[in-house]
Batch of 3 targets.
Target 1
Amino acid sequence: MAELCRRFGISRKTGYKWRNRFQEDQLAPLSDRSRRPAHSPGKTSLEAEDAVLQVREDHPAWGPRKIHKRLQRLGHSDVPSPSTIAAILKRNDRIEASESIKHRAFTRFERAEPNELWQVDFKGEFRLSDRRYCYPLTVLDDHSRFSLGIA
């Protein structure tokens, strides 16, 4: 078996897996089996999913967090998390895709001549090692981007 696996460039574990699979059922084609779990113990119950959809139907503008709080106030024992509620709403086509924000390309403005415009920027205060405050202020020429001073 080791020589055969080496020849095909697979591990011995994979070789034995395929051999055992062939011996189990020779008529079935040798193909990968589904990796889907046989059962999902943590799956949201149908009752909880129905409760989420009912609250959404009563209040179409509410989002997952508000629906979560409402279900808690109503005394439901199995309240899904807001992220699970969002997944339930999406799965049942109850969330409308919001329009994406259109980002415009950044256009850098620049004056035609040096010293035509200076940009002044206060950088915020911070403490020096001797416990005094420093208030940095930068002055920048808009045309050349030359730093005229830091005060």
Target 2
Amino acid sequence: IMGEKVKNLYYDAHLVAASIRLFEHQNHTPPSIEDISRMLSFSTEQGSLLCKKMKDRNIIDIIEGGFGTKLYLLNHLLIEEIKQEEPESSIASEVKKFQESQKMNEQKFQAIRDEHKKKQQDLFAKLNDQLKKSLEK
């Protein structure tokens, strides 16, 4: 029985490395970030962040090509250099920050869309008034 496992970057990096190997073995092709995230029940944002951290440490490589973005295991031994004290809360907080920034961007986009719609309605009203005036003459 493994018991409660404290999740951290070290632990999650081992999971990602194992899932890359398992996916390649089962599918005879390298996985995408989405494949790994689905396998590990991570959000895509969490999977992306984790893979970026692993790429920065030269543990994996992320290659974008004609068949999408694929993950390749470069050196799993470098996982041992990750501090085991780094709590998952730092990863979770970064994911939360990212999701909040996405929400803010969506709100800004919606405000711009609403403003554009109002300008368009005002323009149509103005053109309609001008058309009515020109027809009255």
Target 3
Amino acid sequence: MQRGIALFAALTCFNAPAEEVRPAVKLASPRITEASGIAASPRHPGALWIVNDSGAGPELHLVGEDGADRGSVALRNINNRDWEDLASFEWKGRPYLLVADTGDNASKHEMCSLVVVAEPSVGKDGRVLAGNVAAAWRIDFRYEDGPRDCESVAVDPAAGKILLLSKRTDPPALYELPLVPGTRAPQTAKRIGETRAERPGGTLLPFGNQPTGMDVSPDAARAAIVTYNGWFLVVRGEGETWSAAFARGAVWQGPHLLPQAESIAFSRDGSEVFLTSEGKHPKLLRFPVAESR
């Protein structure tokens, strides 16, 4: 017991959370039990989309920044093998969500999939209108160097690219796919680099440095990464490639102290990040994004 108390004290004292923009809230929806991906709504201020991990239905859950439950919508004819991340973006003037069915704990699946849906309609009361939605397009793919477990997927719509960061490799490997392949044929995720996302002073948690979520800022100048230890930023210079930016390593921003954080998303203006965790009625945190650190 004393060892456990000492470990908790070390975590909370050495890793005092960065100042939050607003106090944490709890997600009210009883349907969100294993939040594995979060994304800010492209068109509805104050709203966030969330997906659950494997074992849950193929649903998108809408919540308010205050944690309020705004309803759920199912993806038609789509399975949730192991959904691990969610991204929002605009393409040719229309808002979309990308669901990443990329979890693979044993690294045994030859193929993974990314499902893109038009953002579901939301009523004047802020709740989801449609009962289910169909996929706009789907990308089945394999990694060029064999199966990978991946929980960190983000979209850079200006470049027309999808970024994927492996979880269990050391160091984490960065892959790239086209956002709109132009064919239904399976794609190959190309390895374009690697990175480090490590807590200063070393990790106190098992697997604490493994990336569990990622997002790209609306201006595509930053990528945010969450691990079990805390959250990080990758800052990209003007004209710089993502591979070069990630190669410098992700910069530690601070701890979150969530029990199993697997979701991170930028706000629509890029000034904040939202984080949440697996579990029933988890906390929803938000932290400011500094200009540089």
